[in-house]
Amino acid sequence: MSAQNDESQGAGSASAPITVVGSANQDYLLRVEASPSPGETVLAHGMRKNPGGKGANQAVAAARLGGDVRFVGCVGDDDDGALLLRELRAEGVGTSDVEIITREHTGLAIVAVDTTGENSIVVVPGANFALTESRVTRVVRRDAAGGVVVLQAEVQPRIIAGAVAAADDAGARVVLNLAPFVALAADVVAACDPLVVNESEASAMTGLPVSTLDDAHAAAGELLGRARSVVITLGARGAVWADGDGTGHVPAPALDRVVDTTGAGDAFVGALAVRLSEGAALEDAVELGVRAGTYSVAREGAQSSYAMAADLRHAEARTA
Asked: Is 243 among the catalytic positions?
């Protein structure tokens, strides 16, 4: 059954389409006491397979909050690819622009989660790197006019550049989550509204240390000179934002226990995209993103941990 039922529409019905261009992976989630150091072998307490990939994660997070979402990507012609497609469809994500690649396996990620909920991830791109600039450009120009285009960096940089150029031509708003960090041309970054990065990615872009809230504000100010707007996510401290109207900090709600941080940044981006698709101000979009990310870290897995709109309403009511 689609995740977009009546109850889940409470984050607001999206007023514009959301096109997510990115990766789809099968996640192999390992539970460990602590992630291994170089040369060290550790025993895992168990292993689970979950649908993942930053692109698919963000698409699911947005769809669960009522977004009108389509996903553009590639999977292999294998069991993992078939499973990922079924999961996306079950969540209400449009998959007509997902290409099945016979010559590559579906992307996968090995995710080690320790007892504090922190994770270490190794990604094998597989079919994700078969995504072509011509197809992405065609889909974005055809479907994204007036909407929001969401991108991440688990696809090749030329795909990001092509999608951004097509989105700009179509009058779509570009949300780029530059994770993992890759160097991009200045004109690609300049179209981002917002550019979304975490502390380490912001530091890599600016050369500035980003360890305190003041550091994050300074880095956001520097990045605002390159992009139309900027968001720096800070984990348990929430997020800092900056645009032409001002800057601010949205703190995260307190949690008794962090279970698993896998995919929390993707929950944030998906929620932010939904709010922006409704025409909200960046500060309001960041506020929903912080609540969605906080909700996810209290639960195991990536997509399986994401909130419906009703979940966030109930969580807000409990803390009011």
From this structure: no
